[in-house]
Every structure is written in structure tokens, then in C-alpha cells.
Write a structure and sequence with these properties.
- With about 750 residues, the chain is an alpha+beta fold.
- Helix content is about 25%, strand content about 20%.
- The longest helix is centred in the middle third of the chain and has 70 residues.
- The chain is flat, with a radius of gyration of 48 Å.
- GO terms for molecular function: zinc ion binding.
- Belongs to the TRIM/RBCC family.
- InterPro entries: B30.2/SPRY, B30.2/SPRY_sf, ConA-like_dom_sf, COS_domain, E3_ligase_FN3/SPRY, FN3_dom, FN3_sf, Ig-like_fold.
Length: about 750
């Protein structure tokens, strides 16, 4: 009992609670303390329920023979929207909601319109406090009978919960005669703080709280249960809620009691941490003093150096000015040069005079020039010896203990998953610098902290050896002398469904140089219609004559599953992306067909080559993009219904549709997955890896990636993460059959 005093303290007055009420946040405070806090917060004085200390303090208990007179009921207003009930008035105007600053929560708790009236007393806590007082203070404080006349007041031996008073044996028999209703009152231990026998509804007087709303987590009476506000809520009898909650608490208590060893171990760790805190704080304080002493020593050393330079300059200037003063003094009438010149003029021998006077003449000429252009030989001011310490003062003002780096910000525009995971981030502008970063990555479903960690020194990381078609969760945090900072927000990256196929655009199929241009790296192509289209259009009188330019990859595959991605410029007119048999594509290239040919249906948006045979899979399969849109054909237009929309894909939305398919905005990157064994090709939104469309393709011979340009457009192959971050271009290693050669 003595060890639980802390649990019985009021968070406001820090004393044992008296008449505790339960706040909406489930914390208990003294009723008087809560009232004082509300008054200090600017709310009016709340109406507190009476709490008599003796039966003579109210008319109900003034005499055992006096009939009970009912207390007048105050008019109470209902909350808006709850309707009216007999004996109540609808509230006029809007009532301000009361906010109680709860100390344990550290925030304001909304009490509602009626304030503390809606807060029920914590009778269980009162009973625990009563048992605590009897256990701790047994024999030290006696409860006296409230009906004995002084000076013969006896110690109380019984208490009456109905009369709310304590009695000695004689007074109890007097006020509870045998055979009267008072004889049926409940007997309790003598006390000065009587509690209600049961909890009643604060809104409906004398209504017992018989139900519990699991949705609102509050007790209800039979009238509150009928309100619309609880419609659809899960309401159970209070006895069921009591048993459920009691079983949970019993189970939780048993778990804690069965793990006392763990508790003691953690207490030991905490005590060691407290000891280490004291030791480390002393070491940190000593380090702080040492740093300040070093700064002061450096300042003193620098002060001595600057003072020495200033003194040296003062001596030089003083000497220069003193010499100038001596020269001027020599020009006085009876001193120095003037006296010597006067004596020189007394010489009568011409030869001797000329021989001796030339030097004097020069000195006099210099003196005259100095008189006419007088200036100080040294500047007496020391303006350039002033120190500008504004920057240093600001640094000293900002001098503080080093802080751990703030949570990095993931650069979602550059972060991607392709052949490897590439993660890029940056620190916030007001963050402390980081010495290195810790990158945590794990598969989705693994709890945080259970993934792998990689230590990197820069602001980007490349992660390889990952599983295909998996979602990885990544986050990063910085570290410096102060330790690790907070983790960044988690980013989810979906790895490709198959190994990435690395290839380049083949420029050796006799490209039309005037219409199709391939970059030097052979990963980007641009179609420019040029004069040929202008000339063709000039000869055409009906429909439109457009030539399709074909471009293929330099690698053909014969087995396995492969994935690659590319991006199409949104301003492109028409660009087709897909796969096809190498032999059929070569035949198409050497025998080019225009878009008006019956071989290619211009309205389908999907070229399958299925017209050549009604039983075999198509020789090539394309998806058409252009003008910022992508066209997804329906299964009716594919060969024998082999093409279909993938479940959960974008084609199942509500985009513009037609009997032949649907049109959607062009994704930033388009992914293509070829399964040679199954003879299927699937197109993805490469950014989110959502499947867009799936169709069949003939894989009986080598199949290669293919691209078709109709009109102006541009296409860029997705660069490998490994190539992007390598210092030099790595040697290509092709493990599949190549059309031309195998590169090692």
C-alpha cells in the first residue's frame, strides 16, 4: 500500500486526490483542483456538487424522524441536436466549449459545454484511497462520531453510506431504529469522505449507467443509449464490459508479474544509464571548459601578436615624425642650418665659397620645397588597426553544442529501382552537417529495424543483389559527432518483374538519316519528318501519307524473362514500343509499308501482325503512344483474344474508351517485360510498376526490342543504375543470344 502513493496523487496539487473526477483523457484530478484550474483559465466558477461532512449540514439528514424533502432540480440545457426531454429547456444561443489544460497529457482537453458536470467521479479510486488511508494512517487519526454532544464525543465505529455520516454504537442505534427503513442502510467503515453508492448519469438524474459504448468509450444510461449520436455504435451491458476489461487487466498484470526478471534487468540498465549520465556529463563539462580555455588562450596569443604589430608601427611613425620635427627646427633663424648658412655667407674667398656652398645650396633648396609642399611623414591615425569582429561575435553568439543531423529529405525525382536501387537524398538547409549516412532497406512486411544497413559517405546510395518483383522500403539517417539523427520518411520502391535487359539502339540497319537520328551513346533517338514528308504530302491528294521508321535493339533474346524501360517525349506525334521477331522486322524494314496499307490497321492502335496467320501468335506486338497519350487496345482487337488488361492495372479505370480500347495519359516511363517461354509481353507504368496491357507474341525465333516512329518524336532508353554511377563505362556482358555479335 505504501508504495502506490504516487499513483494516488493529483497531478495538479501533488497530494492524495480528494473527490477525484475522470477527465475525457481518462486522467483523474481533484474536483476542487479542476475547478480552480478552470477559474484561472478564465472560465466562470463551476457549480460543484455538495459534499456534506455531517448529517446535520443538509435538511435531508437533520433529524432521523424528519421526512425527506426532495432537493429542487436545477434546469439543465441540452446539447444542440439531442432533442428535448420532459423537464428540460432548449439552450438559447451557443455555449463556449471548456478546455482543461491536462498536466499529464501536456495538452488541452475538451470538457464539453457543461464542463465538470459531465465528468463523473472516480469512485473506484476513492475506495482505493480510503483503504490506503486506513492502512497507512491506522491509529494515528481517529474518526469521531458526528452526533455525540461535546465534551463526551466518542470515536466512531460505523459509517452509513445512505446517511453519509459516521456514528458511535449508541448514536447508530438511535438514528437507525429497528424495524424502520433506516435499519436497512448500508454499513461502512467510519470516514469523513462519503461517496455515492453507484454512478449515475450526469445528464439524466438518478439513472444508473448500465451500458458501455465501445465506439465512444463511455458509460451510458438507458436514455443515453437511445440517442441518435450512438446510432450504429457497438453498445454492450456494463457487466460484459466490466468482465472483458477485468480479464484484460488480469492478463496484463500476470504478464508483467511473470516478467519481473526483465523488469529488474531494465531497472539495472536504467540505473547504469543514470550513472553513465553523471559520468559523461562531468566529462562533457570538462571538455567544454577545455574548449573555452583553448579559445581564450588563442585569443590571448592573437592579442599579443596584434599588439606587437601595433607597437612596431607606433615606433616607426614616432621616429619619422621626430626626424621631421628636427628638420623643421633646423630651419629656425638662430639654429641649425640657418646659423650655418649665415656664417657661410661671411666667406670672402670666391673659390672657397663655391667649393663649400654647393651642398648648403642643395639642402636649402630641399628645405624650401619641403616648406612649399608640407605633409606629415607618417599618418598619426590608426584607423586601419581597428578590428572587425562582427563575424567572430556572430560565431561566438551561435556557439552551441553540436546537434545530430535532421531527418534527410528523399529526392523522389531521382530515386528509382531498375537493375539496382538508386536512392538519393539531401539534408534540410538548417541541419547540422553529417559525417556519414546510414541507409536501411528491407522488404515490405519486415518490421522497421529488421532490414539491412549500409554506411555511405555521400548523399546517394546504390543497392544491388535484390529480389525481382518485390517492394522494398528504404529510409536514411545522418550521423555526426552527436550521434545518429532521425530517420527520413520511408520510400517504397518496386523492383522490376524480371532481370533488366541492357541493350543499345542499332544504327546499322540503314537508317534514313534525314528522318531518324540516333545519339552517339545509342540510347536516344529522335524522328524529324524533314523535307521527305513535305514532298510526300505535296503528291498526296487524299488521306494522309506517313512513313513509319523502324528502329530495333542490338540484342535479340531466345529464352528467359527480360525487362527494360524507356521514356517517350510527350510532344511526340506517334511512337510505337514493343517487340517482334527479328526476321519479320528485317522484312518490314527492307519492304517498308506506309500506314495506309491493309497490313496495319491505323485504328487499332496495336500492331500485331496477326493478319498473316489466323492460328499462330503475332510476329510483333506494339503499343502506340503520341500527343501525350497512350492507347491500350481491347482484347477484341488482339489475336484470338490473347491481349488483355491486367487486373488492377490502369486500363481498368474510367478513362476515355471506345469499342477498340481506352486512352490514358502517357506515363513518364514505359516498362516492357518479355517472357519467351510463355510467348507473352507485358507493358508497365515503369514508375509504379502497375501493369497496363498484356499480349501474345511469337517467340519461335530470336525476338528483339523494336520501336517505330510516325512523324516527329523522341525516345530515350532507361540507363542502367550501374552505368550511371560508374567512373567509366563498364564492359558490356551479354549472356543471351545477340543478333550480330556477343560482347564480353
Amino acid at each position: 500500500m505504501k508504495s502506490m502513493e504516487r499513483e494516488l496523487q493529483c497531478p495538479v496539487c501533488k497530494d492524495i486526490v480528494k473527490q477525484p473526477v475522470v477527465l475525457p483523457c481518462l486522467h483523474s484530478v481533484c474536483l476542487l483542483c479542476a475547478s480552480e484550474v478552470l477559474v484561472q483559465s478564465g472560465y466562470p466558477q463551476p457549480e460543484l456538487p455538495p459534499e456534506p461532512n455531517s448529517p446535520a449540514s443538509t435538511p435531508n439528514t437533520r433529524s432521523p424522524r424528519q421526512a425527506r424533502r426532495p432537493m429542487p432540480k436545477a434546469d439543465r440545457a441540452l446539447r444542440p441536436g439531442f432533442g428535448t426531454y420532459p423537464g428540460r429547456r432548449r439552450k438559447e444561443g451557443h455555449t463556449q466549449l471548456m478546455l482543461f489544460p491536462c498536466v499529464p497529457c501536456g495538452r488541452d482537453v475538451e470538457l464539453g459545454e457543461r464542463g465538470l458536470v459531465d465528468c463523473m467521479r472516480n469512485l473506484t479510486l476513492e475506495r482505493i484511497v480510503e483503504r490506503y488511508r486506513h492502512t497507512v494512517s491506522l491509529g494515528s487519526v481517529a474518526v469521531m462520531c458526528q452526533f455525540c454532544k461535546p465534551p463526551q464525543t466518542l470515536e466512531a465505529t460505523k459509517g452509513c453510506a445512505d446517511c453519509r455520516a459516521s456514528f458511535c454504537n449508541e448514536c447508530f442505534k438511535l438514528y437507525h431504529p429497528w424495524g424502520t427503513p433506516r435499519a436497512q442502510h448500508e454499513h461502512v467503515l467510519p470516514t469523513l469522505n462519503f461517496r455515492p453508492k453507484v454512478l449515475t448519469c450526469p445528464e439524466h438524474d438518478q439513472e444508473k449507467l448500465q451500458f458501455y459504448c465501445k465506439s465512444c468509450q463511455r458509460l451510458l444510461c438507458s436514455l443515453c443509449k437511445l440517442r441518435r449520436v450512438h446510432g450504429g455504435h457497438k453498445i454492450v451491458p456494463v457487466t460484459q464490459a466490466y468482465q472483458t476489461l477485468k480479464d484484460k487487466i488480469t492478463k496484463e498484470l500476470g504478464y508483467i508479474l511473470s516478467n519481473q526478471g526483465t523488469v529488474l534487468t531494465q531497472i539495472t540498465q536504467l540505473e547504469n544509464a543514470i550513472t553513465q549520465t553523471e559520468v559523461n556529463s562531468v566529462a562533457a563539462r570538462e571538455q567544454l571548459s577545455q574548449c573555452v580555455r583553448e579559445l581564450m588562450a588563442l585569443l590571448s596569443e592573437r592579442q599579443a601578436m596584434l599588439a606587437q604589430g601595433l607597437e612596431s608601427s607606433r615606433q616607426k611613425r614616432s621616429e619619422a615624425l621626430a626626424n621631421q620635427v628636427a628638420e623643421r627646427r633646423s630651419l629656425l633663424e638662430h639654429a641649425g642650418l640657418m646659423a650655418f648658412t649665415q656664417e657661410l655667407l661671411k666667406e670672402t674667398d670666391s673659390a672657397c665659397f663655391v667649393h663649400a656652398a654647393r651642398q648648403t645650396h642643395n639642402r636649402l633648396a630641399q628645405s624650401i620645397e619641403s616648406l612649399q609642399s608640407f605633409s606629415l611623414s607618417a599618418d598619426p591615425s590608426f584607423r586601419h588597426f581597428q578590428l572587425d569582429v562582427s563575424r567572430e561575435l556572430k560565431l561566438l553568439t551561435d556557439l552551441n553544442f553540436i546537434q545530430a543531423p535532421l531527418a534527410p529529405v528523399i529526392d523522389t525525382q531521382r530515386t528509382l529501382a531498375y537493375d539496382q536501387l538508386f536512392l538519393c537524398w539531401r539534408l534540410p538547409p538548417d541541419s547540422s552537417p553529417a559525417w556519414h549516412f546510414s541507409v536501411e532497406y528491407r522488404r515490405r512486411g519486415v518490421v522497421p529495424g529488421g532490414g539491412r544497413l549500409e554506411e555511405v559517405s555521400g548523399t546517394s546510395a546504390v543497392i544491388d543483389r535484390l529480389e525481382m518483383d518485390s517492394v522494398y522500403v528504404l529510409r536514411v539517417r545522418g550521423c555526426n559527432k552527436a550521434g545518429f539523427g532521425e530517420y527520413s520518411e520511408e520510400v517504397y520502391l518496386h523492383t522490376p518483374p524480371a532481370p533488366v535487359l541492357n541493350f543499345y539502339l542499332d544504327s546499322r540497319w540503314g537508317l534514313h538519316a534525314d528522318r531518324l537520328v540516333v545519339s552517339k551513346e545509342q540510347r536516344c533517338a529522335r524522328s524529324v519528318p524533314g523535307l521527305s514528308l513535305l514532298q510526300a504530302a505535296d503528291r498526296a491528294l487524299t488521306s494522309c501519307h506517313l512513313t513509319a521508321d523502324l528502329l530495333v535493339g542490338d540484342v535479340a533474346v531466345t529464352q528467359g524473362r527480360h525487362y527494360w524501360a524507356c521514356s517517350v517525349e510527350p510532344g511526340s506525334y506517334l511512337v510505337k514500343v514493343g517487340v517482334g521477331l527479328e526476321s519479320k522486322l528485317q522484312e518490314w524494314f527492307h519492304l517498308p509499308q506506309d500506314m495506309a496499307s491493309p497490313r496495319y490497321d491505323p485504328d487499332s492502335g496495336h500492331d500485331s501482325g496477326a493478319e498473316d496467320s489466323s492460328d499462330s501468335p503475332p510476329s510483333f506486338t506494339f503499343l502506340t503512344m503520341g500527343m501525350g497519350k497512350i492507347y491500350l487496345p481491347s482484347s477484341a482487337n488482339s489475336h484470338h483474344g490473347t491481349a488483355n488488361y491486367r487486373d488492377g492495372g490502369i486500363a481498368n479505370g474510367n478513362g476515355p474508351s471506345s469499342p477498340t480500347g481506352v486512352t490514358y495519359p502517357l506515363p513518364p516511363r514505359l516498362g516492357v517485360c518479355l517472357d519467351v517461354e510463355k510467348g507473352r509481353v507485358t507493358f508497365y507504368d515503369a514508375h509504379s510498376l502497375r501493369p497496363l496491357w498484356e499480349g501474345a507474341v511469337d517467340c519461335s525465333a530470336p525476338v528483339c526490342p523494336a520501336f517505330c516512329f510516325i512523324g516527329g518524336g523522341a525516345l530515350q532508353l532507361q540507363e542502367l543504375v550501374a552505368n550511371r554511377n560508374a567512373d567509366q563505362t563498364p564492359v558490356r556482358r551479354v549472356t543471351i543470344q545477340s543478333r550480330v555479335t556477343k560482347l564480353n
